[in-house]
Amino acid sequence: MPSKHCSFCGSPEREENPLIAGNDAYICSNCVVSAYKILFGEEESTSSGEFNPRLLKPKELKAMLDEYVIGQEEAKKTLSVAVYNHYKRIFKNLPDDDTEISKSNILLIGPTGSGKTLLAQSIARFLDVPIAIADATNLTEAGYVGEDVENILTKLIQAADGEIEKAEKGIVFIDEVDKIARLGENRSITRDVSGEGVQQALLKIIEGSIVNIPPKGGRKHPNQDFIQIDTSNILFICGGAFDGLNDMIKRRLGGNTMGFGQKKRSKEEEENLLHLVEPDDLVHYGLIPELIGRLHVIATLKPIGVDDMVRILTEPKNALVRQYQKLFELDGVMLTFEEEALRAVARKAIERKTGARGLRSILEEILLEIMYELPDLQGYEVVITPDVVERHAQPLYLKQKKSA
Question: pTM for the whole thing?
Answer without folding.
Answer: 0.75
